Amino acid sequence: MPRRRTPKKRTLTPDPVYDSRLVHTIVNHLMKEGKKALAYKIFYDAMEQIKNTTQQDPVKVIEQAVRNATPLVEVKAKRIGGSTYQVPLAVKTERGTALSIRWLLASCRSRSGRSMISKVTNEFLEASKNMGNAIRKRDEVHRMAEANKAFAKYRF
Predict the structure, then answer these.
(1) What is the pLDDT of residues 105-115, one digit of tens each?
(2) Where are the beta strands (DSSP E) in the chain?
(3) CA distances from 19 to 12, 81, 87 (A)
(4) What pTM did the predictor assign?
(5) Burial 56-92 (b: 16+ CB within 10 A, else e)
(6) pLDDT (tens digit, 9 = 90+) per residue, 47-100?
(7) Cα dist. 22→2, 63, 72, 148 in Å?
(8) Domain map of the chain by residue range?
(9) 128-146, pLDDT tens digit by residue?
(10) Burial of residue 102 (number of CB atoms within 10 Å: 0-12, 13-18, 19+)
(11) Which residues make Cβ contacts (< 8 Å) with residue 156, sequence separation at least 6?
(12) Alpha-carbon span 20 to 41, nearest angstrom
């Protein structure tokens, strides 16, 4: 954390094909070792598959998947008097979106399958229908926050 001042938020430009900032963010998270062209190719091919299977606008399906995987509360460890408590906190919108994208792509990578395109397609389709590993992760975080609701008085 910076000592003097908080850094300015950098605004992301929309992606060239769908003109969506969310798509650009997902591509940036999908990218490994600076290979952005490959990340774009994987994601755009996945968007085409989503469009062919659902007959809907793929950006809407992606937005719905991210919205479904976004957590509302999370737990953070706070040390008080020698013991550590898991304190539930509300999640800000930007952090919630970042967490959901991270969880979606992590569950894509852990999936078994041949190509990354099919993994991304299946995970985003499942998340848009409130299923899949990313949704399970969100529910697990919500359960942890619910279980530790007694420690909400230690919020900071």
Answers:
(1) 999 999 988 89
(2) 73-80, 83-90
(3) 11, 51, 38
(4) 0.91
(5) eebbebbebbbebbbbebbbeeeeeeeeebebbeebe
(6) 999 999 999 999 999 999 999 999 999 999 999 899 999 999 999 999 999 999
(7) 27, 8, 19, 32
(8) 21-154
(9) 999 999 999 999 999 999 9
(10) middle
(11) 78, 87
(12) 16
32 burial (CB, 10 Å; 0-12 / 13-18 / 19+) is exposed
8-state DSSP, 82? T
User: Quick one: 21-154 is in which CATH superfamily?
Assistant: Ribosomal protein S7/S5 (1.10.455.10)
pLDDT score recorded for residue 153: 87
User: Which residue matches tokens 């992590």?
Assistant: 106
Dist CA 94 CA 92 (whole Å): 6
Among candidates 66, 64, 75, 63, which has minimal Cα distance to 134? 66
Written as six digits, the tokens of 90 are 């509300």
2 close to 14: Cβ distance less than 8 angstroms: no
Q: What are phi and psi of 60, to 5 degrees?
A: -65, -40
- CA separation for the pair 54, 128 (Å, rounded): 11
